[in-house]
Design brief:
It is a multi-pass membrane protein. InterPro entries: DUF1232 (IPR010652), UCP031804 (IPR016983). It is found in: Endomembrane system. It holds the Pfam family DUF1232. Its main location: membrane. The chain is mostly helical and about 120 residues long. It has one domain (about 5-115). Helices cover about 65% and strands about 0% of the residues. It has 5 helices and no strands. It has helices at about 5-25, 30-40, 50-65, 80-90, 100-115. It is globular, with a radius of gyration of 14 Å.
């Protein structure tokens, strides 16, 4: 698979599953705000293609239902997701702007104020 094909596949997977996964992890993992800021950076057309590819790859791993350590394992389930996201977040930190972080905080506040959906 070419790099561009992989980017497109990762972006499609992220756009289809990111918000559902972010809502499910809200309050359960400490890195939800960073994941949301990463999403906003990855979807920002001003972000360089190589950074977008890195971020979409990490976010695709985050939304995959099956990974190295299954998410349902208490205490350990999200450690692999956190490690992958942290590595991508660190590599892209100079591209994750205050605007991306503000959008992430606004989303978190809105979700925390909303009643859970049945």
């Amino acid at each position: 698979m070419t790099d561009l094909t992989q980017l497109e596949a990762d972006e499609r997977r992220v756009r289809q599953g990111f918000w559902r996964k972010a809502r499910r992890t809200l309050g359960h993992v400490p890195f939800t705000e960073d994941a949301v800021a990463t999403f906003y950076c990855a979807t920002d057309s001003a972000t360089p293609l190589t950074i977008r590819a890195t971020l979409f790859g990490a976010l695709a791993y985050f939304v995959m239902p099956f990974d190295i350590i299954p998410d349902f394992i208490a205490g350990l389930g999200y450690t692999d997701d956190a490690a992958v996201l942290l590595a991508a977040f660190t590599a892209a930190s100079s591209h994750i702007t205050e605007t991306h972080r503000q959008k992430a905080r606004a989303w978190l506040l809105k979700e925390q104020a909303s009643p859970p959906q049945a």
